[in-house]
Amino acid sequence: MPELPEMENYRLLLSPRIVGKPITGVAVTRERSVNVPVDYFEQHVLGTSVRSIKRRAKHLLFYLSSDKVLVLHLMLGGMLFFGRSEQRPERSIQVTLSWHGMHLYFIGLRLGYLHIHESADIDRVMQKLGPEPLQPGFTPSMFNQLLRRQRGTLKSTLVNQRVISGIGNCYSDEICFAAGLLPARRCSELEEEELTRLYGAIRHVLGEAIRYGGYMEMPLFVGDSLTGGYDERCAVYDCEGEPCVRCGNPVVRRDVASKKSFCCLNCQR
Questions:
Q1: Rounded to two decimals, what is the model's pTM?
Q2: Domain-by-domain residue ranges, the chain?
Q3: Could you give the CA distance from residue 224 to residue 248 in angstroms, rounded to a whole number?
């Protein structure tokens, strides 16, 4: 599932390509991928332009000139592709937005969605999400207070969108590895120094993942050499049996709270 770095990478790459340009075509091939009748969706999107693209947690928010907002959540298996019709990938496409000869394909929205809302309603729609871990207001003090209130494991807490938004299975494991902590550790048992390491790991791992384009398997457009660049830099996630980049011992899978999790039992405590 795309997480904060993947969605931020999409935002950065899409903005200069579509912002300010009128949308000349809208096609919805799966009605359940949108939250309104298809005719309504097309009527309120066609002819508008994207004023800006923002990200909140794992969502992309397309602010339209009509004062509507398209809220995208890709969920499991979702991805985006931007290009000409002849470059269209052989994937299941549920929604397409077009700018004359260029198209933004919303792929694999079986669980994901592209909803339309009034801009005034966005705060309400996003109100259950926790703080953004890369925002200036996300201070060590705020982080410590958040985690001190949690009784679950690091894994379950880091992926809980109501506690901290944007982190999922991949980056929770990478963060725990960077901090030298096992994902099964209880938040209530962490010492001050461990919390400090964990906070630093969150900022470092997410920041680095954004710089390297996240781990998505498919480029956003033909010639995109950034998207997916972090995949080969993952130290533990989906690396079961491979040697740890620190100590050489094999990375193991130890599921935590019914979620798959990868770690080094030698480097993480």
A1: 0.96
A2: 4-125, 140-263
A3: 33
